[in-house]
Backbone:
C-alpha cells in the first residue's frame, strides 16, 4: 500500500490482530477496530497506542467507510460487520495475507511453529537478535509475537528496510489455525520461511482439524515451503515432528535430549534462580545456557531459539546474554499477585499438554507448596471431550483442582462437549480433590475460603476468565485486611 489508508480490523483484540493494528499504524495508516469484548493485555496495548476499539460488533463501527477491512480468523458469517462488508463491497483481506504483503516481503522470514511453545520461543529468539544488534545493527529484528514479550513491553516491532546486502530478519510466530472464513488453510502457509523452528506436533484445534493426521498434513505443507538453502530446527522428542520434517528439502537440525541430535541438551537442573543446562552441537560442547524460568519445556524453547540463531550466524555471547536476561511473556507462568502468602499465577492454557508442563514447572519453582489448578475450559480444544482423559491426567499433577463451566458450551455439539462434572469425578476417584464452580465469582468464593498461606494458585485460561485475575487478588487482600 503506497498511500495512507483507513484500515478497520474486525476482531482486533486477538493477539496477532492487535499487533498487526500497531504495525499498520506505524506505517502511517488510520486504524480502527472492533471486538465482542476487550481484555488485557491486548486491550491495554491498543489503548496505549490510541487505537479505538468498538464494542460490540455493529454496522456503525464501519462509519466512515474504511478503505480496507482486515477480517480476523475468529470472525464467521453472520457477524454483523462482516455481512455489511460483503453487502457494500468494502475491500477486505486476512491478517496473514496483509502481513506477508506489507511486512515479510523483502525481509528474512524466520518462523516459529508447533503445537506448543511458539510464543515463548519466538520471544526468546527476538530478544537474542535484539541483544546481538547492540554489537551489529544488522541483527536488529522486526517481529510479531502472539503475546506481550516482557523484554520489549509489546508484541511487535517493525524496522525500516535498509539498503544493506543482508536481508533484515523478521521473526514471526507461525500459527497452524485457519486464516479466515474465506481461507481455511493455516496462517503459517502465508509466511514462506527462510528458516524455521518446529517445536511440537500434537492433535489440537479440534474444531477445524478432524484428527492428528490432518494436523500433520498442515505441518508437512509448512515444511515444504522452506527453500533448499534454508534450515529447520526440529524437536527430537516427537515422532510426529520427525514425520513432518522427514521429506524436507532443506537441512534439518534436531534438538532435545537425544545424544545423537544436532543440538543435545544435558545436565538439566533447576534452582530458585531458574534453569541451567549444557548444550552440545554436533557432539561437541557448544555452551552452558541458563534462563531465569522454571520448566524443562522452557529449556527446550530456549535451546530451539539458540540453535536457530546460531545457525543464522548470531554470536554465542549474544545468545547466552539474551537467554540469561529473558523476562518471559505475559500470561506465561506470570505471577499476578502475592497476597497473604498466597501466590497467584496466570498461564495461557489451551491444551492438556500445556497444562501438564505448566503444573510441572510450578512444582519445580515452588517445591513443597500446595498447588491449586484453576481451569476455564475455553479453547476450542479444551471445550471438547476428545481430550478428557488427557485433561484428567494433566490436572492430577495439582494438589487441588477447581474447574469452571465450559465457556460458551452451547456452541459445542452435545456429543462433543466436555462435561466438567465427569472430569472432577475422575480426579476425585483418583485421589485429587476437585470441584466444579460455575464462574469466576463462585471460584473466588471457594478459594478465599480454602486457600492458606504458602499456597500457589495457577489460573489457566486463554481468555479473560470473567476478570478472575483481578477479582481473586482483591478478595484475598480484603480478607487479609480483616485479619
Residues:
Amino acid at each position: 500500500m503506497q498511500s495512507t489508508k483507513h484500515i478497520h480490523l474486525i476482531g482486533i483484540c486477538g493477539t496477532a490482530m492487535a499487533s498487526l493494528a500497531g504495525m499498520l499504524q506505524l506505517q502511517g495508516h488510520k486504524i480502527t477496530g472492533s471486538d465482542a469484548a476487550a481484555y488485557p493485555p491486548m486491550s491495554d496495548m491498543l489503548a496505549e497506542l490510541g487505537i479505538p476499539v468498538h464494542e460490540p460488533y455493529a454496522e456503525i463501527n464501519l462509519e466512515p467507510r474504511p478503505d480496507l477491512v482486515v477480517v480476523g480468523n475468529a470472525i464467521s458469517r453472520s457477524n454483523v460487520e462482516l455481512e455489511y462488508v460483503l453487502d457494500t463491497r468494502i475491500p477486505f483481506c486476512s491478517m496473514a495475507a496483509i502481513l506477508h504483503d506489507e511486512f515479510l516481503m523483502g525481509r528474512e522470514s524466520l518462523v516459529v511453529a508447533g503445537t506448543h511453545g511458539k510464543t515463548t520461543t519466538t520471544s526468546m529468539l527476538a530478544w537474542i537478535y535484539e541483544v546481538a544488534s547492540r554489537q551489529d545493527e544488522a541483527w536488529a529484528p522486526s517481529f510479531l509475537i502472539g503475546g506481550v514479550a516482557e523484554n520489549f513491553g509489546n508484541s511487535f516491532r517493525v524496522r525500516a528496510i535498509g539498503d544493506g546486502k543482508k536481508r533484515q530478519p523478521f521473526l514471526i510466530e507461525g500459527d497452524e489455525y485457519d486464516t479466515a472464513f474465506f481461507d481455511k488453510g493455516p496462517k503459517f502457509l502465508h509466511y514462506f520461511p527462510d528458516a524455521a523452528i518446529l517445536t511440537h506436533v500434537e492433535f489440537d484445534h479440534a474444531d477445524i482439524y478432524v484428527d492428528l493426521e490432518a494436523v500433520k498434513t498442515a505441518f508437512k505443507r509448512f515444511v515444504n515451503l522452506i527453500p533448499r538453502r534454508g534450515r529447520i530446527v526440529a524437536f527430537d522428542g516427537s515422532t510426529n515432528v520427525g514425520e513432518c520434517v522427514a521429506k524436507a528439502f532443506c537441512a534439518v537440525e534436531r534438538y532435545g535430549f537425544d545424544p545423537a541430535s544436532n543440538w543435545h541438551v544435558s545436565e538439566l537442573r533447576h534452582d530458585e534462580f531458574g534453569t541451567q543446562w549444557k548444550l552440545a552441537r554436533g557432539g561437541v560442547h557448544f555452551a552452558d545456557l541458563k534462563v531465569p524460568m522454571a520448566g524443562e519445556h522452557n529449556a527446550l524453547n530456549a535451546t530451539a531459539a539458540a540453535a536457530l540463531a546460531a545457525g543464522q550466524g548470531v554470536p554465542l555471547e549474544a545468545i547466552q546474554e539474551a537467554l540469561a536476561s529473558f523476562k518471559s511473556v505475559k500470561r506465561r507462568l506470570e505471577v499476578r499477585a502475592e497476597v497473604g502468602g498466597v501466590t497467584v499465577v496466570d498461564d495461557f492454557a489451551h491444551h492438556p499438554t500445556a497444562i501438564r508442563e505448566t503444573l510441572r514447572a510450578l512444582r519445580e519453582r515452588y517445591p513443597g507448596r500446595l498447588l491449586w489448578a484453576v481451569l476455564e475450559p475455553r479453547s476450542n480444544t479444551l471445550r471438547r471431550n476428545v481430550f478428557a482423559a488427557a485433561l484428567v491426567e494433566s490436572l492430577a499433577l495439582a494438589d487441588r483442582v477447581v474447574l469452571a463451566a465450559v465457556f460458551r458450551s452451547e456452541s459445542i455439539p452435545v456429543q462433543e462437549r466436555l462435561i466438567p462434572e465427569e472430569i472432577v469425578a475422575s480426579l476425585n476417584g483418583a485421589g485429587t480433590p476437585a470441584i466444579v464452580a460455575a464462574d469466576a465469582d463462585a471460584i473466588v468464593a471457594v478459594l478465599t475460603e480454602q486457600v492458606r498461606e504458602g499456597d500457589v494458585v495457577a489460573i489457566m485460561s486463554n481468555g479473560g476468565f470473567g476478570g478472575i485475575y483481578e477479582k481473586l487478588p482483591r478478595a484475598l487482600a480484603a480478607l487479609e485486611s480483616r485479619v
